[in-house]
Design goal:
Layout lengths: L1 E7 L4 H4 L9 H17 L1 H12 L5 E3 L11 E5 L1 H10 L3 E5 L2 E4 L3 E2 L14 H5 L2 H6 L10 E6 L13 E8 L4 E4 L9 H10 L10 E6 L5 E3 H12 L4 E6 L1 E4 L6 H10 L2 E5 L9 E2 L7 E6 L12 E5 L2 E5 L2 E4 L3 E5 L3 E6 L1 H18 L5 H10 L1 E2 L5 H4 L3 E2 L4
Parallel strand pairs: 7-10, 7-12, 8-10, 12-14, 14-16, 16-19
Antiparallel strand pairs: 1-3, 1-4, 2-3, 5-11, 5-13, 6-21, 8-9, 13-15, 17-18, 20-21, 22-23
Keywords: Hydrolase, Protease, Serine protease
Family: Belongs to the peptidase S8 family.
Organism: Anabaena azotica FACHB-119
Length: 400
Amino acid sequence: MKLYIIRPKTSSVTRSLSLISRKLTPQSRRVQAVEVKAFWQQDPVYQEIVHWISDAREDDIIPIAQEETVITGTVIVKMTEEEAARMREELPNADISEDRKIELVQPVASATDLKTEISQSDLWHLAAINLDNCRQKGYEYTGKDITIAVLDTGVDGNHPALKGKISKAYTFDAENDQVLPMNPSSDTHKHGTHVAGLICGDKIGIAPSTNIFSGVIIPGGTGNLSNFILALSWVSQQAEVSIVNISAGIIGYLPDMETEIESLLLSGILPVCAVGNEGRNRTRSPGNYRDVVSVGSSTIDKRISGFSGSATLNIGSHQYQVPNLVAPGTNIYSSIPGEKYEAISGTSMATPIVSGVAALILEQYPNIEVLDLREELFNRCETLQAPSDRQGYGLIQVQL
C-alpha cells in the first residue's frame, strides 16, 4: 500500500471566497481559517471523495489526514494501486496522485571559512537592502510581535544569534496524521538555522524581534510531499503566524501544493518562496506559483546571481513571470549549528530577507491586508540593470 494525495481538480473556494480584505492579525486569521475550512468541506467534489473513501473496503484503503488536520479539500490516504485506479475511474473530478519526494532548494556552497564571530563587512546584505542606512537614521521597526513560520530542516534554537526567538518547533508525520512538538528546537541539516538567522538573528537578521515557528518538512534536506501538505495546512490554522518562509520545492511547475498555498492566502498568511537555484528558464514549485511572493537572488554588485531561477509561465488562462523580486543571495553570512556562521549562496538565502522585510512592514501597518502587503513589497524595490524577467520588480529595499 502507498500514500496518495487526493483533492478536487478545480477549486470552488476561489469562486466563493475573495482575497480582498484578508488581514494578517491573529483575530482576523482565526475567523478566516475557519471560513476557508468550512468552504472546503462544503465543496461537492470533496464530499464525493470523503463518501467514496467511507464506502471503500477497509482492508484496501485507510484514511490518514482528513478533516481535523487538513484545512483544504485535500485528503491523504493509504491504499493499493488497484484501489487508486478504481478511484480515478469512479471519481473523474478528483486529482489522485501518489506521494512523492520534495527536497531542499539546494544552496550553492561558498568557498569561505566558518566563523565564530562576524564583522560588519560580512553583513553586506543589510546595506544592500538599505536597512543599515535606515537604522542609522533612527528606523525602529524590528518585527516585534510578528511570527514567521520557517518550513525547512529545523532551527538550532541554541545558537547565540537565535536564543529565545524560536517560540515553537514541530515535526510532521502525514502517514500517522501527527504534528509532533520538537523540544528543544534543533536542525537536522544546517539550512533552516541559516534561514532563520537571516530573518531574526542578532546582528545578521532583518527583523530581530520576530518570533519563529520552526516546522521540519525536509529532514536532512529531503522530505515527502504529504508531510509538506500537512505542514502547510497546520500553519494555516496557527493564528499567530502571518508569513510562511519556504525554501523547499520540486523542479518544474507541479500543481500538487497549489491548493494549500491558495488556502494560506485565503486564511491571511503571506507565502514567501524561493524560486530555485537552477538558473534561467528553470524554476521550482511552489516558488513558481502565482499566489506566492517568488524570490530570486542578487549579488553584492547588484547583479542577478547566475544560479537564480526565472521563467515565464503560462498556466490556465494566465501568463506571468517569476521571480517577483530579488534579494541578496550570493555569499550571505548567517548562523549554522555549532555556534558558527557560514556564507552560503542561494535563493534560499534571499527568501528569508524578503520575509524579514515583510515583517517590518507588517509591524508598521498591523491592519494591512495580505494583498496590500504583497504590493508593498513590490513597490519597495530598486530596479536593477537586468532584464525584467530575471529581477521581477527589482531588489527589495527597506524604507523609512
